[in-house]
Amino acid sequence: MNELWNDILKIGQSILQGGNITYEDALMLGDANDSDTILLCSFANKIREKYNGNNVDLCSVINAKSGNCSEDCAFCAQSSRHHTTAKCYPMIDEDEIVETAIRREKAGAKHCDICTSGLGYTGQEKNFKIIINAFKRMKKETNLKLCACLGTLTMDAAEQLKYAGVERYNHNLETARSFFTNIVSTHGYDERIQTIRYAKKVGMEVCSGMIIGMGESMDQRIEHGFLLKEFDVDAVPINILNPVKGTRLEGLKPLSPMEIIKTFAIMRFIMPDKNLRFAGGREKNLKSLQSLGFISGINGMLIGDYLTTDGQGVNKDFDMLKDLNLQY
């Protein structure tokens, strides 16, 4: 047995017994390759099973306002600074939002997330009032757990969402603080962190994760994972960059499938009891290895289409879960 194999065994067993991984040990796991990666995934799977069971949490997103965003996020097809083929449209009306949510529930979603492009809301905007009214109706007309992904918030906006029935706020920090300025220049990291604090203060759960494959190192992914652990977020969506033509990252070389799988496993070691979610980019980047995500610690999944790209279809998602003997 080589040294890393032994270390994976010791760290994995410690977490299964209720311990926590150290930052230094997580960095060491980032060096895993080949069969060591498979062992890492096996322990991540056991950790997922111990702390989260075999039920996969399914979520769906409604893109209620698309494109023409003022921000310069390097990965984003909706930025007005990029020239892409992503759809652009103003806020859809309240009825369409609610009707879409009802369809998503019938398709199998348990959570439904209203998402809009743009920096965020103060709580006074006309579009924000449309969103609030839609959430109030969704609360009455569905059994969905309500989520929102609306960018930065003021305290007032967060309170209005909570009062309207929103249970979880989705606000990704995108990447590690040490890499953030390579991706975004039009707003700061602390602005995003403040929104997470507002959401938690009013009593909403927080869904905050990352995009991997933007040029960051494994050490920076681990840095980000420990920050999310520190903030005690409830759910962690892990997006895999799907480079869009016309964005600043269009020519980036994709991560290898095994590098992606290893990242999932390390995030499970760092956050053993959290909801780690498959998000955008899994179909294109993992291809035939998608199912390995669930064997490396993932226990949630966004189903249907994403904000600007198509998903593989809910029936294929359900077939994959059935083949893995996972419940949803």
From TrEMBL:
Domain Radical SAM core: 51-282
Keyword DNA repair recorded: no
Cofactor note: Binds 1 [4Fe-4S] cluster. The cluster is coordinated with 3 cysteines and an exchangeable S-adenosyl-L-methionine. Binds 1 [2Fe-2S] cluster. The cluster is coordinated with 3 cysteines and 1 arginine.
Gene Ontology BP annotations: biotin biosynthetic process
Reaction it catalyzes: (4R,5S)-dethiobiotin + (sulfur carrier)-SH + 2 reduced [2Fe-2S]-[ferredoxin] + 2 S-adenosyl-L-methionine = (sulfur carrier)-H + biotin + 2 5'-deoxyadenosine + 2 L-methionine + 2 oxidized [2Fe-2S]-[ferredoxin]
Required cofactor names: [4Fe-4S] cluster; [2Fe-2S] cluster
Protein name: Biotin synthase
Native source organism of the sequence: Clostridium tyrobutyricum DIVETGP
Taxonomic path: Bacteria, Bacillati, Bacillota, Clostridia, Eubacteriales
